[in-house]
Design goal:
Helix 2 runs parallel beside helix 3 and helix 6 packs across helix 8. It is built from eight helices and twelve strands. The model has no long low-confidence stretch (mean pLDDT 88). The strands form three sheets. The chain has a five-stranded parallel β-sheet with strand order 2-1-3-4-5, sandwiched between helices. A four-stranded antiparallel β-sheet has the order 6-7-8-9, covered by helices on one side. The protein is 40% helix and 23% strand. The chain has 225 residues and is of the alpha/beta class. InterPro entries: CheY-like_superfamily, OmpR/PhoB-type_DNA-bd, Sig_transdc_resp-reg_receiver, WalR-like, WH-like_DNA-bd_sf. Pfam families: Response_reg (PF00072), Trans_reg_C (PF00486). One of its GO terms (molecular function) is DNA binding. This is DNA-binding response regulator.
Length: 225
């Protein structure tokens, strides 16, 4: 029995009904809010494992709600929105969204994103060792193994892979990655990032031209799978 609680903040009745059927049939406990204000009250009184948040709310922009939530809420927030512009997606992700799905969405994909986000909630950021498929990273020893063989990485490559693996399943924007790895002064150096990602792929991917771990989200950033 899946006991995870999910809060849905969305003013569209058909979407809420679809999510109610989909989530409850997969054993999630679901709370619903039609406005940003209602959503904030529910989030405070019943902190869920994950929040599904619409951008186009009747009382406040979902971007504002996202920022308010991120002032104290540190679990997964997945955006569901008809707004599919690169600007909206990047803005949401930079403001702390865990993931972004555009409407209409496939329920199977939504459930997969939810499972990934909840699984990531349960990972301790200070875990000494993380494993993802054929990769294993030891944070204390700063060692990376692929199929149990040590992969030689530079310090920057290690830090980049560590950031990806700690955020498995989450879309990280170019600006976020550049700020976290190289600092604020590098946030516009997207070509710089592409070079390092290409080098890292050569070392950890079976086929760097068809990567299965570091996935490009066109115009936005990267997702580690």
């Amino acid at each position: 029995m899946n006991k995870a609680e999910i809060l849905v903040i969305d003013d569209e009745a058909p979407i809420r009904k679809l999510l109610e059927i989909t989530l409850e049939s997969n054993d999630y406990k679901v709370w619903f809010a039609e406005t940003g204000k209602e959503g904030m009250i529910l989030a405070v009184n019943h902190p869920p494992e994950l929040i599904l948040l619409d951008i186009g709310l009747p009382d406040k922009s979902g971007h504002e709600i996202l920022q308010e939530l991120r002032a104290w809420y540190n679990k997964a927030i997945v955006i569901l929105s008809v707004q599919d512009s690169e600007e909206d997606i990047v803005k949401a992700l930079d403001n702390g969204a865990t993931d972004y799905l555009t409407k209409p969405f496939r329920t199977a994909e939504l459930l997969a994103r939810i499972r990934s986000a909840i699984r990531r909630n349960q990972l301790h950021n200070d875990s000494s060792i993380l494993s993802c498929d054929d990769l294993q990273i030891d944070f204390g020893a700063r060692i990376v193994k692929r199929n149990n063989e040590i992969v030689k990485l530079t310090s920057t490559e290690f830090n980049l892979l560590a950031l990806f693996m700690k955020n498995e399943g989450r879309v990280l924007t170019h600006q976020y990655i550049l700020k976290e790895i190289w600092g604020i002064g590098y946030q516009t150096e997207t070509q710089y990032l592409r070079v390092f990602v290409a080098t890292l792929r050569k070392k950890i991917e079976e086929n760097p031209n068809q990567p299965k771990h570091i996935i490009t989200e066109s115009g936005v950033g990267y997702r580690f799978s």
